[in-house]
Design brief:
With 666 residues, this protein is an alpha+beta fold. The protein contains 21 helices and 21 strands. The two termini are 50 Å apart.
């Protein structure tokens, strides 16, 4: 702990707050971000991973005092029971949030007890609360509103499925990140908790007038998913009408609140969306949508005649999934495919593309919709897989066989890398990021009927299949028009089953390593998911039987992460969380070595000052993902001009690409 006075005396508003510079485990307090009746949230620096985090401390102002040694205690014997009950609730909330991995929910990295109280360490997000973010952005339109609401609905669905409710959704608890995506803060714990006498104790949420439904105001209210939907609909009502909803109790006997469908802009939002808001805001909980899926369906139903602009039809649309991953970066295996046709004959190109879409739709049908997302772009068709990475290869093989039988020449390329799923202005989904752009570049090297894969994808398949080397032929480096080198492998045409595709192993049998316990496996999966997303589950389960020890398991998993920065961060966190001896120094060595190697490679061609300047410029367009892409592209760029043009290729719109290049001086 810090050897200085623990309580702040330098102008911070909260007299209970820890002092700037105070050291709590590996975290150094930098400032107070905010506070409420039950706790204080700090901005802190993680000295192990060299990054900023947010730390929430349980300090109920009405019940607690802080002693000179920084410990927190109940201010009186009478307050002890309430203090201890609140502490248990705080820990339960922390444990619940730590189990959720969703872009719409604030990510809890860890929680621990110290100073006779508890702390929750969260990912620090740059941005601002929704009510501040909206300043200068009003009036809203339908796409902008849905871009905010869809990820929040997906996040709520995840916590409802786990048996939890938020119970305090309001504009101040919705935070807009720098990249324009929302995250829901301050989740409550389970709706009911056993007290010391073994009796169920009702948890009273912080009731926010206008956003809390009537059932939250009294002990025996019938709460459920419809309770959170009322509050979210209240936020939507406020965004589309500019008026706060009338307090719930005032609407029970006589509801005089103007409906959203009556005062909202029907041309901008569509009557169906406004009616959905009114449905979820019904004062009677029995007359609201019962679950998120019902409300989402009503909100996202496309406008029809007389209800605003109709979305233009998409040519042979592919099945969509992964709504839970909206606008968030994760690791995915991406298959990119396109057809061969005369460049000057658009009619032939359109007919062949339609056939490709049909074949690809059939090929991906066996893959669960929740683990893949297919999109039709002007450059071709892409499918992103976040479950089994071998699904991409299976689809490619089936697509190739079907296309060959119909005399259709198809180019195919597969890559493994970071992707981001985000809605386009029409509310449909698109895939962004290095994962898909590299898959597209790999595809362009293929001949009709060939399946080419990038080295990152080959290394994962090699890890999953003992004899993957027999299934691929190394082609070596190929340089694309932007002077980037791609290490390519050619699928040798054998049937996939010949390469030993195995079912996902069961974890009911003992692992090879004696220290690989079920708890250690769950921890490794949870930490890996923070860095690569949903694919973590199958990679952990396919790696466990081959690991001789927990350390070997963690190292093998780290080797599967294509980018050095998240690879090192995973290994550091996983080793630290496993309790292995010598963890701190070894983990820091891995992080420092990886960072130094990456920096040295880039510095050999491009000055660090130029890299920092370009990263700041690129972040205006790409948000937090800019750092990853700059590091990745700088490893193969042979000049600043090449780097900037490579980065520009990650931007969707020509105007954005040109603006970035102009800002960069090209």
């Amino acid at each position: 702990m810090s050897d200085t006075t623990c309580v702040s005396r330098d102008g911070q508003d909260d007299h209970l707050a820890l002092q700037r510079g105070y050291v709590l485990n590996e975290y150094r307090i930098e400032s107070v971000l905010g506070g409420g009746g039950f706790g204080i949230t700090y901005l802190a620096h993680d000295t192990h991973l060299d990054c900023r985090v947010a730390i929430k401390e349980y300090v109920p102002k009405d019940l607690a005092l802080r002693d000179a040694d920084c410990s927190v205690r109940a201010r009186s014997a009478k307050a002890t029971k309430g203090f201890e009950w609140g502490l248990k609730r705080f820990l339960l909330e922390s444990r619940a949030l730590a189990s959720f991995h969703h872009p719409g929910i604030v990510r809890v990295l860890r929680y621990f007890q110290a100073n006779e109280t508890a702390y929750m360490v969260m990912e620090y997000e740059t941005g601002e609360p929704l009510n501040q973010w909206l300043i200068g952005r009003l009036p809203l339109d339908r796409p902008t509103l849905l871009n905010i609401v869809r990820p929040l609905l997906d996040g709520l669905e995840a916590i409802h499925r786990a048996g939890f409710l938020h119970r305090d959704i309001k504009p101040g608890n919705i935070y807009m990140r720098a990249d324009g995506t929302p995250v829901l803060l301050d989740f409550g714990s389970a709706r009911r908790l056993e007290n010391e006498d073994g009796q169920e104790q009702a948890l009273t949420a912080v009731v926010t007038p206008g956003f809390a439904p009537a059932e939250q105001y009294h002990r025996h209210g019938k709460q459920g998913p419809w309770t959170d939907l009322y509050a979210l609909a209240g936020v939507m009502y406020w965004m589309v009408t500019g008026k706060l909803p009338v307090e719930a109790f005032a609407r029970l006997r006589e509801d005089n609140m103007p409906p959203a469908a009556g005062i909202g802009n029907v041309d901008a939002f569509g009557l169906g969306l406004l009616n959905a808001i009114d449905w979820a805001l019904n004062p009677d909980e029995d007359k609201r949508p019962r679950q998120v899926a019902d409300f989402r369906r009503a909100c996202l139903a496309p406008p029809t005649g007389g209800e605003g602009p109709v979305d233009p039809p998409v040519e042979a649309p592919l099945p969509l999934g992964l709504s839970a991953s909206e606008a968030r970066t994760f690791i995915g295996a991406v298959l990119f495919a396109d057809v061969v046709s005369p460049a000057d004959d658009p009619a032939i190109q359109s007919e062949r593309r339609t056939r490709l879409v049909r074949m690809l739709s059939q090929a991906i049908a066996p893959v669960p919709p929740t683990s893949r997302l297919a999109v039709n772009t002007k450059e071709g068709c892409a499918v992103c897989y976040v479950g089994d990475p071998e699904d991409a290869l299976r689809t490619a093989v089936q697509l190739g066989d079907t296309a060959a039988s119909e005399g259709l020449g198809v180019h195919m390329g597969i890559n493994l890398g970071p992707v981001r799923v985000a809605p386009d202005p029409n509310g449909r989904s698109r895939i962004l990021g290095d994962g898909i752009t590299t898959a597209f570049r790999v595809m362009r090297f293929s001949e009709p009927g060939q399946v080419l894969v990038a080295r990152a994808y080959y290394e994962v398949i090699q890890h999953l299949k003992r004899n993957a080397g027999e299934c691929f032929r190394h082609l070596g480096l190929r340089r694309d028009p932007l002077a980037r080198d791609h290490d390519l492998y050619l699928w040798n045409g054998e049937h996939l089953a010949a390469c030993g595709a195995a079912a996902e192993p069961s974890l009911s049998r003992p692992a090879t390593g004696i220290d690989i316990t079920p708890a250690a496996i769950d921890s490794a999966e949870r930490i890996l998911a923070q860095h690569i997303g949903p694919m973590a589950r199958i990679l952990v389960r396919r790696t466990v039987p081959r690991a001789g020890s927990l350390r070997e398991l963690l190292q093998s998993l780290a080797d599967l992460i294509p980018d050095p920065a998240p690879r090192s961060a995973f290994l550091s966190s996983a080793l630290a969380g496993s309790g292995l001896s010598g963890v701190s120094s070894s983990a820091r060595s891995v992080v420092n070595a990886s960072t130094s190697a990456t920096s040295a490679a880039a510095a050999s061609v491009i000055a660090s000052a130029d890299l920092e300047r370009i990263e700041k410029l690129f972040a205006r367009h790409m948000g937090p993902m800019a750092k990853v892409l700059v590091r990745r592209e700088s490893r193969t760029a042979n000049s600043l001009d090449t780097l900037c043009r490579a980065l520009a290729s990650h931007l969707d719109k020509d105007a954005e690409r040109q603006r970035f290049l102009n800002d960069a001086g090209f």
